[in-house]
Amino acid sequence: MKTFPYLAKTLVSFSAMVAGGAFAFAVALTFVLSFFSTVEISAWNVVASHVGPWFLLWVGVYAIHNMLPIAVAHGRTRREFLIGTSLLAVVLAVVGIVIAWAGFLAEGALYSLMDWQADAHGSLVVHFLMYLVWFVTGALCAAGFDRFGAGGAFVLPAALVFIAVTRAQLPGSGDLPLFPDGPAQLGAGWYGLSAAAFVVALAGMWALARNMPVRVRS
Questions:
Q1: 97, 116, 149, 215: most buried by Cβ count inside 10 Å?
Q2: What is the CA radius of gyration of the chain?
């Protein structure tokens, strides 16, 4: 089993299928709601900006909690698996923004045809960094709990900071707690903070997962 190709083939294809189903559901739900009220929000924006990050966080958890033990049982090293997972984070983030923007374009054409109005969504870079950080944050949390059991809760405060930073530039997200007007004051500096969150979360995942005990799960 080649670690990265296996991870990419399994999780990228699964994520794409889930995204396709989510888009179809979003469009169908919009049509249903249009019979009862004026359409003024983007259903796909809800999926891409809110549901999508949580899905990628779960994929990060799944990669470490479920697939790392299987890889080790098949003779792969933790180092090889973690390299593959790190590459997968970038690939999934790229796939995520391609799917998100394809959805925005298709939905925009539909909204124009139906004379509906959609709300604003974040930039391509904002979504890329958000997907990247949320996936690695999920992997970090899984590594913490798998290594220390309930004691892994110590990673949660850092995880909350990481994911909060990535959402600061999304339209409608508001200010960060204890830091009013922070996104407006720092502007593009928030992109650097999101990149830093990715680096720190990735380093934490490596530090915790490289020596954690593994048990093959059925």
A1: 97
A2: 19
> How far apart, in whole angstroms, are the C-alpha atoms of residue 167 and residue 194?
9
- Output the pTM of the full model: 0.86
Residue showing tokens 């470490």: 64
The DSSP bridge partners found for residue 176 are 179
Q: What distance in Å separates the CA atoms of residue 72 and residue 49, rounded to the nearest whole number?
A: 34
Q: How far, in Å, CA of 122 to CA of 140, rounded?
A: 25
Rounded CA separation 215/218 (Å): 10
Domain residue ranges of the chain, discontinuous segments joined by +: 3-209
* CA 217 – CA 206 distance, rounded (Å): 21
Q: Which amino acid is at 119?
A: D
DSSP H or E run through 149: none
> Among all chains, which residue has been given the structure tokens 């083939």?
9
